[in-house]
């Protein structure tokens, strides 16, 4: 995890302090249920909570113990015993390390997803505001990077809003799938721990029960989770790349905000670079880099191995913290995005009406010209405009193959024709007002 690209709320979820607090809660909740079942003394479970709930677990001390034990959970339990006292012998009855580790990981991923959902909501709010602001701001649509037909800037943003609605649903589904609890003991048979303990811990930690844990929670869940994060990151990048293209000097239809005192280049004082959206492209790559290792973690040996462990210690915090940061950075870019309608209109007019070529061709077919002949006539005149030889409308009027009356031909060069269904699309995305 790179601190430069992190928010404190996201980092806190993955801190040693938070991890050990969750570990203790898992162990203590299990002890509470075991006491209810008569497995351990009730007063011992109460003492565990009383002595440990407000304790600060010393990460350095746990590391010191682990240097001897070579086992993190045993080191933690040893340190808990130093705090809780002799009643700590009743902790971890019938449990295995993965019961603690996997359940804690599920809690951390679920909490991280809650933050991610908050980031998506901020992006959605920003997109809706700016889309409605520019609902009818005309701009050119591009295919292959080349001028195609007119759209509106609001429609562009509405499309991204619909995409982030899907992102939100993906994260909700991913959270539901990842938030499972396993307290099933060695090889997952519940031989030494009652299944009721698992259900109780799951309820207390806000998780569901893993149906078959085999000693570890199956990693297909995690693969799907990180894949979902990768897709959301790709959506972040798609919008970031759009803004980067629109900020190019020869386009300049939209631009990242440029604060007072901000510098664009150490060498060239005139520069205003799209640094935030370029950064978002890089962050998206980092998040997606977690997907393949998560997929490879699925195939563990038999009931468990720990080949997944080192991977998840990295990708868990890295992917969630970086995506959390990226979502809030993206929201800030959209909220403060400089939009230049005049430049949009200027670019729209650059090809002298070529963006209306399809409408001219269709009008000719409706007037009785074959599609092949109509296409040829319109294309040949369009190519003259590409070569800078004159105006499209003038060439069309002078071409005998273009049989439309001049007033009808001129009426085809109408921006409003291309925006007549904007309300329909907005209603689909934002609902009817």
Detailed description of the structure:
Helices cover 63% and strands 5% of the residues. The radius of gyration is 30 Å and the shape is elongated. The chain has 19 helices and 6 strands. The protein has 433 residues and is mainly alpha-helical. A two-stranded antiparallel sheet has the order 1-2. A two-stranded parallel ribbon has the order 3-4. The mean pLDDT is 95. Belongs to the lyase 1 family. Adenylosuccinate lyase subfamily. Pfam families: ADSL_C (PF10397), Lyase_1 (PF00206). GO terms for molecular function: (S)-2-(5-amino-1-(5-phospho-D-ribosyl)imidazole-4-carboxamido) succinate lyase (fumarate-forming) activity; N6-(1,2-dicarboxyethyl)AMP AMP-lyase (fumarate-forming) activity. Residues 352-430 form the Adenylosuccinate lyase C-terminal domain.
What value does the average pLDDT take?
95
Give the strand line-up of the largest sheet. 1-2
**Count of individual helical segments:** 19
> Mind describing the biggest β-sheet?
2 strands, antiparallel
- What gross morphology would you assign? elongated
CATH architecture of the largest domain: Up-down Bundle
Number of strands: 6
Q: Segments where pLDDT lies below 50 for 5+ residues?
A: none
CATH topology label of the largest domain: Fumarase C, Chain A, domain 2
* Structural Rg: 30 Å
Family: Belongs to the lyase 1 family. Adenylosuccinate lyase subfamily.
Domain Adenylosuccinate lyase C-terminal: 352-430
Protein name: Adenylosuccinate lyase
Catalytic activity: (2S)-2-[5-amino-1-(5-phospho-beta-D-ribosyl)imidazole-4-carboxamido]succinate = 5-amino-1-(5-phospho-beta-D-ribosyl)imidazole-4-carboxamide + fumarate; N(6)-(1,2-dicarboxyethyl)-AMP = fumarate + AMP
